[in-house]
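ok so i was messing around last nite and threw this chain in just to see what happens. nothing serious, just curious
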Amino acid sequence: MTAISHEWVTVPVSDGSSIDVFLARPADAGDHHAAVIVLQEIWGVNGHIRDVCDRFARLGYTAAAPDIFHRSTLDVGQPRFEPPYTDRSGREHAAKLTSEGVEADLRATHDHLVKLLEPSTNDPRVAVCGFCMGGRLAFLANAILPTRCAVSFYGGGIASHPELAEKQNGPLMLFWGGRDGFITKEQRRSIADALEAANKRFTEINVGHADHGFFCNERPSYDAEAAREAWGMITAFFKTNLDG
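result:
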């Protein structure tokens, strides 16, 4: 198993703010030329998201999880928002996000990863993987950044932004839970229709027996078998589209 290191770093953002980013890397990162931006649920860059970063690092990727709520949590003196899963106050922070702020944060994280990769390669490759709110943000990131590919887990709200379908840069992998009460079949169908109309390369996986949040082992909806299968699909997807 690849030895890894991880740390928090502070990255400047174009609007004059700064964002904390959890960074996980192979301990010998010199020969690794690809990275993954990991995008949070409404519970912040918590233990689950950090664990996903570590898992990507063990595969040989540099992984970075930006603290997307940094503006609103700083306003109330709550750096690095990380409530328990029984706490839904993250919805309040999500409601305060602006498209300008989120895009600036995504670009800052991407640029930081490229700088980390560039000393060892002239072809830095970056993917994105997001969960729940982060699944929607992964769809956005793949539209505004030169990402090689993107993975979205149960991305609520994607259906409200069909205009982003034609802007998708890398191939997409979309995971849905068949028992997800937050994202309807009609919404999933509308996303697929928009991507098909834009002639984009994408793969949909509908885990029929799973609920929203099935990948997270800290949530009641966790499905261990579905999560293992999804992880295998992600690793194969990245080997094809990110490893070069």
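not much to say yet. The CA atoms of residues 163 and 194 lie 8 Å apart.
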